[in-house]
TrEMBL record:
Cofactor annotation: [4Fe-4S] cluster
Annotated Radical SAM core domain residues: 1-210
Tree of life domain: Bacteria
Organism: Duganella aceris
Pfam families per the UniProt record, alphabetical: Radical_SAM
Record InterPro entries: Aldolase_TIM, Elp3/MiaA/NifB-like_rSAM, Radical_SAM_PqqE_MftC-like, rSAM, rSAM_sf
The entry's keywords: Iron, Iron-sulfur, Metal-binding, S-adenosyl-L-methionine
Protein name: Radical SAM protein
Bilayer-spanning residue ranges: none
């Protein structure tokens, strides 16, 4: 079986920072955490479900009490490519050594030069602590990707951020236009204008070209042109005229810190969930979803696509943002019901992921 699907585990809601744009609302006050035993069985079931990519995130995943145990289980799963998403401020030498030994990658978020980053992260000294953690990861041999959220407040710092990532030794720079999700909704006025987004796209491309292969640089998202030509990239494939010919699919499974298991989008309304970790194993939840809940989710995806994508004013479509916002107003209903109108959200953001899927009936 192909292993091209993605599993994203939000191990904990706890974070040592309280970033202004956090789509997860992570903070030091949160205590939710996934049960280790459930996480372990989900990881071992991954190959049987067609899952080949794993993201360990949070909150801050390194604050999860049994992070090292989770990492070791993941490393034992053949063919599972694992990335740890961290703010790097709490990275210790032993953490870096563990990730290097297990062959993991790291995604580290840096959102501007020191002054802006610390302000955005609501913590003085956050930049320098992250810089130190990145240094430990790189020294241990962990491949590091810098993920930078760009808003109106730091768009003029892009060249500095990119230059810093290159000088630090990162292998890749991912540029995320501010999303209207989580705490980011409180600073929605900081989303980029269309003109700023177009300029950012060009700057990102130019920077990557100038680096002469030393670092890859790209915008997180997909082009509107691509989504119009390939709607199956926007989670709306059910075999009807699709060149991939699948009957139904889930390309990414997201397990939230409270145990809710969601299809595709981290901030999706929980009415569309596969269930909760208390309801059964990951394989069981996936198998139950196709006859019981997939039709409503498919309808949500299709109505969001039809109402939002064709007339979206920017070249980058924030698909996950649109789907999440739309899911709050569109009630799960049988296929064939009249679609509810309206396309919420604005600005730029993450578009659809690459074609990856869990097919109905898959099991560990």
């Amino acid at each position: 079986m192909a292993t091209s699907a993605t599993l994203m585990l939000h191990l904990t809601g706890r974070c040592n920072l309280e970033c202004r744009h956090c789509y997860m609302d992570g903070s030091p006050r949160r205590r939710e955490a996934l049960p280790f035993d459930w996480v372990a069985q989900a990881l071992r079931a991954a190959p049987g479900l067609g899952i080949g990519t794993l993201f360990l995130t949070g909150g801050e995943p390194l604050l999860y009490a049994r992070f090292a145990d989770v990492a070791r289980v993941a490393a034992e799963v053949a063919g599972l490519a694992t990335t740890v998403c961290t703010n790097a401020t709490v990275v210790r030498r032993r953490d870096a050594a563990l990730l290097a030994r297990l062959g993991f990658d790291a995604h580290v978020s840096i959102d501007g030069m020191p002054g802006h980053h610390d302000l955005f992260r609501a913590r003085d000294g956050a930049f320098r602590k992250a810089e130190r953690g990145i240094g430990l990861l790189l020294a241990a041999g962990v491949p590091v990707t810098i993920v930078t959220t760009i808003s109106r407040g730091n768009v003029e710092q892009f060249e500095q951020i990119a230059g810093w990532a290159l000088a630090a030794g990162a292998r890749r720079l991912l540029v995320q236009p501010l999303l209207d999700l989580g705490r980011g909704m409180a600073i929605g006025d900081q989303q980029l204008s269309g003109e700023q987004l177009n300029r950012l796209i060009l700057q990102t491309s130019d920077f990557g070209n100038r680096s002469a292969g030393r670092i890859a640089a790209s915008i997180i998202g997909g082009s509107k042109r691509f989504l119009l030509a390939h709607p199956c990239a926007a989670y709306v494939c059910n075999g009807g005229g699709c060149h991939r010919g699948v009957s139904a699919e889930i390309k990414k499974v997201v397990v939230r810190e409270d145990g809710t298991v969601l299809p595709e989008a981290t901030n999706l309304d929980h009415r569309y969930a596969l269930g909760n970790v208390a309801d059964g194993s990951l394989a069981e939840l996936v198998q139950r979803y196709f006859p019981a809940g997939y039709a409503a989710f498919d309808r949500l995806c299709r109505s969001t696509y039809e109402q939002c994508v064709p007339d979206w004013p920017a070249p980058i479509v924030p698909w996950d943002q649109l789907l999440a916002l739309h899911s709050r107003s569109v009630l799960p209903a049988p296929v064939g019901a009249a679609p509810e109108r309206g396309c919420g959200g604005g600005g730029a953001g993450k578009a659809a992921a690459a074609p990856i899927w869990i097919k109905p009936g898959s099991a560990a």
